[in-house]
Write a structure and sequence with these properties.
Helices cover 58% and strands 10% of the residues. By secondary structure, it is of the alpha/beta class. Among the domains are: 278 residues, Rossmann fold, CATH 3.40.50.300; 54 residues; 150 residues. A hairpin with a 4-residue loop joins β8 and β9. The N terminus and C terminus are likely disordered.
Length: 714
């Protein structure tokens, strides 16, 4: 049966040797190992993590119950690409040619800009809107407008509809009516702002012209009124327009017209008087004068009188009658001419008096006409400017009548139900946040952990081969279980011994020292376990207790009666025969050199040549020499002993010493020239076994502490 167990141990040793070679010659997937470590850390913190998740869900429910309901109203806009102007008039601003995507993105950014927030605030007079202020609990104070802008900016959102030019503008608030009003006001102001942007120059020009036209209309009215009042006051009546110069001549007024008419009449009177005078003197009358008939009759009568006088003589009655007729005709013609001449003279004199009077009036209006002409020119100038501005205003009206490319498609309706808070959404957020917090806790636990959790950290963090992981033994007597071949701890040290056989081409180094960072890390037990394993392999093994300050081997091996002899007398040269100081431990199968009494100067004893001589003597007498050295601490004992041995095995207790302290201790050994062959991790718990070590790690049988599995080999 013992042979069978021994063969099984050898098979397990071969498997362990392969594992050690794989550890030293190949790089494992550290990422997978890290994930495994995180997973097992999470398993260790499962109650904490469950509490965090439960607390997160509870907070999500509380936030949902305590949060103020929010109502969201949505209005829809159509944002079309800018088209060319269809009017023939020159536009005041040329639309830039940009891509549709860039244009839409620009409009989306403008929709949720602070510019729009300020415009909506001013358009809706929200600083005085009681409903809006009550909805967001806004009190009077400094920077009121700034706070309202921030509220508008934070609560508005847009949702462009994919593959279209439509965009939804949403506003949320605790009041559904306020949400709908602000959403509608927002889109209306955006449409107006876009129209002003496109036709802003025309609008400004029209506004300017409109104000100028109104002002000029007033000026024209005043100038016309002043002209009329001046004309009325000076009795100036204009009959026809003036010349190109714009001035008013005398003939353009009533006085001038009267003077002109009187001059014409005076000229006619003078002509009549001359004609009458000529008629009186020479008997010449105008062709249309009725006295020409009397002259004809007179001529005829004189001709007849001459004939009668020649025939009948002067006393003939017919001659006398004809003479009387001639005299009567001559008297009629002569009296009419004198009356006509007198009448012509009287009329001429009267007309001359009237002309003189009108002439004086005309001369009096010469100065008034100059002032009248100035006022008339001002009226004409104002009228021309007014007509020109009015014509330009009509042109701008035509050119600025383009269609807006942004239109409101749907107005926002008052929402009936709140959209937030959502219990499902809050629970999902709380769940995700809880998982993130829990993952962060696990990450911090792993990252901030300064102790050795995973035995694989010996290779990853310390750069040393892992010789073995020793489980934490809780049941039974430790010494008995070290010697029991079927125990887990014995199998663990068998694995350590097997791995040591591959440290050099010739097998395990002949002289090995065990040390640790601090006391009570399992260094003494490990030296006993490895010595027992070498002894079970049939090697002559010597275990030396060299912890001259605080020996634990006497307690472990129950050898309290060997305080006088041992290593200390040999180092002090009080004893020269090493064989007489060695104790044979048949229970464990190896020889033991106890420490003896605690010396006052351990470092001086170990630093001398005597310790090296003792080691050389032991090397000649034994196949394997193991030394239980002192812990590193801040002492030099282990450093001094490392000079006399082939190598050092570092013992590390899981989850106790900070890795930085372990690194410093190993660094001290390596800087002194010592060969650190590897490390043994002791007191590996069930938590550490989850990493793949501890119970069943490299034991060959693969069973743990359970009694059922212990019965399998039997």
């Amino acid at each position: 049966m013992n042979n069978l167990n021994f063969a099984s141990h050898e098979l397990a040793g071969r498997d362990d040797r392969r594992e050690l070679i794989d550890d030293r010659d190949s790089n494992d997937d550290s990422f997978a190992i890290d994930l495994e470590r995180y997973w097992h850390e999470a398993i260790g913190l499962k109650y904490w993590l469950a509490g965090i998740i439960a607390l997160g869900l509870l907070l999500g429910i509380l936030i949902t119950l305590l949060a103020t309901p929010l109502y969201q109203a949505s209005a829809r806009l159509e944002v079309s690409q800018v088209t060319a102007d269809v009017t023939n008039l020159d536009s005041l601003e040329v639309d830039s040619q940009i891509s549709e995507l860039q244009y839409l993105n620009t409009q989306y950014e403008l929709l949720v800009s602070r510019f729009m927030a300020k415009r909506v605030m001013e358009a809706g007079n929200l600083s005085r809107d009681e409903a809006f202020r009550e909805a967001f609990v806004i009190e009077d104070g400094e920077n009121l407008d700034k706070r309202i802008e921030e509220i508008l900016f934070d609560n508005v959102s847009i949702d462009p509809i994919t593959q279209s030019s439509l965009v939804d503008v949403r506003f949320s608030s605790p009041d559904p009516v306020v949400s709908a009003e602000i959403a509608n006001l927002w889109v209306q102001e955006f449409v107006a702002a876009n129209y002003e942007k496109r036709f802003g120059a025309n609008i400004e020009a029209r506004d300017f012209l409109q104000s100028q036209i109104a002002e000029l209309r007033e000026r024209l009215s005043e100038s016309e009124q002043e002209l009329v009042e001046y004309a009325n006051a000076n009795e100036i009546l204009v009959l026809n327009a003036g010349g190109d110069s714009g001035s008013e001549s005398a003939g353009q007024t009533l006085v001038g017209a009267d003077l002109e008419a009187l001059n014409t009449a005076l000229a006619a009177a003078v002509a009549d008087r001359v004609s009458a005078q000529a008629a009186v003197v020479g008997g010449n009358f105008p062709s249309n004068d009725p006295r020409n008939e009397l002259l004809t009759s007179l001529s005829e009568a004189e001709a007849e009188l001459a004939v009668l006088r020649a025939n009948f003589g002067p006393d003939y009655p017919e001659v006398q009658e004809k003479q009387a007729e001639v005299d009567s005709l001559r008297s009629a013609i002569s009296g009419g001419s004198r009356d006509l001449l007198q009448s012509a003279r009287i009329r001429e004199a009267e007309l001359r008096d009237q002309v003189e009077q009108v002439k004086q009036r005309f001369l009096g209006q010469q100065g008034q006409g100059i002032r009248y002409g100035i006022l008339k020119r001002e009226v004409d100038t104002n009228r021309e400017i007014y007509d020109a501005l009015l014509q330009r205003f009509k042109e701008l009206e035509a050119s600025g009548a383009g269609q807006n490319n942004i239109q409101i498609i749907d107005q926002a309706d008052v929402p009936a139900d709140p959209y937030a808070p959502s219990l499902v959404q809050n629970l999902l957020v709380a769940l995700v946040a809880s998982f993130v917090f829990a993952a962060g806790l696990v990450y911090l636990k792993v990252t901030l952990s300064q102790t050795l959790q995973d035995p694989e950290d010996v290779r990853r963090r310390l750069g040393l081969p892992l010789l073995g992981a020793i489980p934490r033994e809780m049941d039974g007597d430790l010494t008995e279980r070290l010697t029991e071949r079927s125990s887990e701890i014995n199998e663990a040290y068998t694995t350590v011994r097997t791995n040591m056989n591959f440290l050099t081409p010739k097998g395990a180094p002949e002289v090995l020292m065990f040390t640790s960072s601090v006391p009570a890390e399992g260094k003494s037990v490990s030296s006993v376990g490895v010595a027992t394993s070498f002894a079970q392999l049939g090697k002559r093994t010597l275990l030396i207790d060299a912890d001259l300050r605080n020996s634990r081997l006497r307690d472990t091996l129950d050898l309290h009666g060997y305080d006088k002899g041992g290593l200390v007398p040999l180092l002090a040269s009080q004893e020269t025969d090493m064989a007489s100081q060695i104790v044979s431990l048949e229970q464990y199968g190896f020889d033991f050199l106890p420490m003896g009494r605690t010396p006052p100067n351990p470092v001086e004893l170990l630093a001398g040549e005597r310790f090296a001589q003792i080691i050389e003597a032991a090397r000649e007498a034994y196949d394997q020499v193991l030394i239980d050295g002192a812990p590193m601490l801040a002492l030099a004992d282990a450093v001094e002993m490392s000079r006399a041995v082939d190598g050092v095995v570092f013992v590390i207790e899981a989850e106790r010493i900070k890795l930085r302290g372990i690194e410093n201790a190993i660094g001290r050994l390596q800087r002194s020239g010592a060969q650190v062959y590897g490390a043994i991790v002791t007191k590996v718990s069930q938590k550490n076994s989850a990493y793949g070590y501890g119970y069943g790690y490299g034991y060959g049988y693969g069973y743990g502490y359970g009694e059922e599995k212990r019965e399998e080999p039997a």
